Here is the input.
Amino acid sequence: MVTNSILKQYTGAPMGNGGQRKKIHPYKFTLWVGIGSIIMMFAGFTSAYIVKREQPGWIGFSMPMLFWYSTAAILLSSITMQMALRAFKSREMGRYRNLLLITTALGVLFILLQVAGYYQLNHMGVRVEGSGSGVFFIIIFGLHALHVAGGIVALAVMVFRALSSTRRSYDVVPVEVTATYWHFVDLLWVYLFVFFLLIQ
Here is the structure.
């Protein structure tokens, strides 16, 4: 009886009293595993930054205003992404498409502002070849920008599917996965932004 109960629990088969264990979707499981790995990677980089900044010749810097603007852009994009998810669940497909396009545009704007902000830091003397802070900065912010770019690709795919007249899918899982990932890179940037504001 005990063995049978355990098998039912892990296979999702009906259990006693009409209960059934709810299984996580494979896409969502893969996403959360990936998010866990990304968190560990950035935690390692920021920890190393704290240690290395005590070395001689380390150059501190202040955040250019462009990074504040990019923060506003990605926070706004997280709001529009959540609104898009709600519109999809309500079958408001026109509104869903428009909100996806806005979210994608804000994501592109975020990356452009990041690049411009780094050029400002470069003019301030924070260079990859000149200081340890420059190396860490471009690695940490560059990797985050790459993860945002991955989210933009996912959004572009969702936009294509939404605009396609031959494909109609009301499966909410891909939209939920994309929204969760987008919110994650948003929160990750907020963490990095606050970290660099406090550490300088």
